[in-house]
Amino acid sequence: xxxxxxxxxxxxxxxxxxxxxxxxxxxxxxxxxxxxxxxxxxxxxxxxxxxxxxxxxxxxxxxxxxxxxxxxxxxxxxxxxxxxxxxxxxxxxxxxxxxxxxxxxxxxxxxxxxxxxxxxxxxxxxxxxxxxxxxxxxxxxxxxxxxxxxxxxxxxxxxxxxxxxxxxxxxxxxxxxxxxxxxxxxxxxxxxxxxxxxxxxxxxxxxxxxxxxxxxxxxxxxxxxxxxxxxxxxxxxxxxxxxxxxxxxxxxxxxxxxxxxxxxxxxx
Amino acid sequence: xxxxxxxxxxxxxxxxxxxxxxxxxxxxxxxxxxxxxxxxxxxxxxxxxxxxxxxxxxxxxxxxxxxxxxxxxxxxxxxxxxxxxxxxxxxxxxxxxxxxxxxxxxxxxxxxxxxxxxxxxxxxxxxxxxxxxxxxxxxxxxxxxxxxxxxxxxxxxxxxxxxxxxxxxxxxxxxxxxxxxxxxxxxxxxxxxxxxxxxxxxxxxxxxxxxxxxxxxxxxxxxxxxxxxxxxxxxxxxxxxxxxxxxxxxxxxxxxxxxxxxxxxxxxxxxxxxxxxxxxxxxxxxxxxxxxxxxxxxxxxxxxxxxxxxxxxxxxxxxxxxxxxxxxxxxxxxxxxxxxxxxxxx
Lengths: 268, 346
Known about the structure:
The structure holds two protein chains of two kinds.
Chain A: H1 5-29, H2 50-57, H3 60-91, H4 97-108, H5 112-125, H6 132-136, H7 143-154, H8 159-166, H9 171-182, H10 184-200, H11 203-208, H12 217-227, H13 232-267
Helix pairs in contact in A: 1-13, 2-13, 3-7, 3-10, 3-12, 4-7, 7-10, 8-9, 10-13, 12-13
Chain B: H1 2-16, H2 20-27, H3 29-64, H4 83-89, H5 92-105, H6 107-122, H7 129-142, H8 145-154, H9 161-172, H10 208-220, H11 224-234, H12 238-246, H13 251-262, H14 264-280, H15 283-290, H16 301-310, H17 315-344
Helix pairs in contact in B: 1-3, 2-3, 5-10, 5-14, 6-10, 6-11, 8-15, 12-13, 14-17, 15-16, 16-17
């Protein structure tokens, strides 16, 4: 223990408070239904079969696929469109650039519910309700992503593109082969945030999706919970399955993430 | 996909005018137009999405807030002036949901202060900082429908572990309690009444709003606010502490006169972002855990907008509520612009 004994004691208590609900969830996911209402959190009879069971009771694999599919497309498109716009804002000079950028900035604070209603009406009119396109396309553009990558691109020395331009490189090649690789940390941070945000997004899919085969994980989970709410063991198994990709992502990318939050936000 | 097609067009556009870079400096005026065209080509995919899905909707939503637009009614919607706003200000429920939104935000000071304490503890030279940080960050990283479903079980009044722990603690003190009814109780720590704006002693207790508030603290305390404070603490010059120590400052004085003022920009940023987030918040939790109940006590403004727009399809009225929310957030943003710049120049 030594000098920092008290600190470690406090931190350990907090860490346990954070961890115990997750532990309870994992333990409950291995319980038989008969033990769900028992206070002992540890199953007396372990039921790993709960996990395959959720795939039988609901199209869980389909939900998984939909979430990953939509999140992957949104991440790809949003990162690309943001990076291209950021290149335009950070590395090129053109009339009206700074005014347009201010307009972008001004919209970042607009609450989602304000734009959600007209966007829903637009989807109705374009017959995009209940479709992958309706889930992906409105999320493929981000003023915040543009802002974040612009800030990164501004820190790159102008000599980089000048050297490439003297070699006769096109703007697309300067963007793709010089600026984008140099903005890698920013691009990765934006990609992680976008992926996670889309993977967990709830409001938009909830209003947009009606068909079972198009449900994403959060929507599928809520229906599962409504219909099989008493089968807490299965619900917990589904919840564990839901957050596992996030935990894996976090453990792999946590350094980027922590730096990204600290950098992106402080400059904002 | 539309986005992919636009992207192809934009890149094609850029490549069709290749030598813009080098020729640019040689060619004078003509090349400046060319650079502008290249810039527009790069901007086009993003700008078109921005115009269609952000800028147009903002104005359109303001317009329909002044109409009786209803997706269920066949007749064309018409201009009704500020009637929606007048109606909502006279609707008791609106004010109750307004109060609910603020009630859930009462957890913010606790969570922000907690984030600061954790950040200070983690900024010492101790072992295992990364392990602690990872564990603290876990709830906010995984927050979402799955965690809210988990907390619904944790708050179960009969066999949920929250009440199990409360009962065990009470037992140690020789008391016999059942524990609060959490998500099915309308009681709250401020004793707010259910049916009308006001407070009474019989409404005092722990209920659904408190459950969501405590969960919110659990989620946020080790999240990005803590990371921001850790970064802020690392940026404080050590000689400030040394100078203060030479002046004989104790631990509290060091915090009061060095740490706290030095962290002011970070705190300001966190408070502004938390207020903005809090005003818009509460939808996911309410939809997953309580459906806005019991008796509407966990219905926040965003959940109210959802039910009005997507259950009753009164999108004119819902847009009016959304604009009230927007106005509040805009006011905070103005404060941020006015006073934030004083802090942000680092």
